[in-house]
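Chapter summary example: a protein plus zinc ion.
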Amino acid sequence: MDTSTGSTASDRSVDEGLVCTSCGATPPPGQEPAARLTWSRGTDGRRTTWTCDRCSRANLRSIEGKLDPAWW
Ligand SMILES: [Zn+2]
């Protein structure tokens, strides 16, 4: 029998910091907790992506015109 152990510590939910995937902006020091609420969170595969409030606003304008209202 194989003794393959140690596959439990792969789920690292470490704080890697917020970085806007659109413009690369980062929240000011101390503002990360607030940014997590205001920024748009998405998932790209297994990664978590963040879009800052400024970019999400800009994206929303273009998205609203393209996507069906039912999508929301
Ligand atoms: Zn941005």
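Key point: Residues 20, 22-23, 25, 51-52, 54-55 surround zinc ion (CB under 6 Å).
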